# Entry
Amino acid sequence: MNNEEQSYRGLLQELSVKSQEQYDKTVITLSTGALGLSFVFIKDVVDVKVASNINFLTGAWICFALSVLSVLLSFLASKYALDRAIVAEDNNEEIGIDRADSITTILNWLSAAFFIVGLVFMIVFVKLNLGDNL
# Structure
């Protein structure tokens, strides 16, 4: 690989890291924001004592929390994968695709899926409780 190819590859790796950082920040911000907003919604707009289909709200809260948890666990899996890669590099070993890399990828997809499902649950809950008042 020549210097130009190495430089381009380095740029791609740097952009990949930045993209992952932005993704993680975005998912955490959206999930925690939606969770907080739902608490305000329940407190100020819908009285929990008379709310119907509360299971949708509970499901939304669980999904938002699982979304945040997935991102946090992906941080740990990613750190583990990077530590293993450093050790392998120091020992001139080739590790290929590490299990921690795969786990990180799965957790990233799960974080998005949990957020989307939580959002759908919240929309359904709001629609069922505000109905024609929207």
User: Anything to note?
Assistant: The helical segments are 3-44, 54-90, 99-130. Residues 25-133 form one domain. The chain has a mean pLDDT of 86.
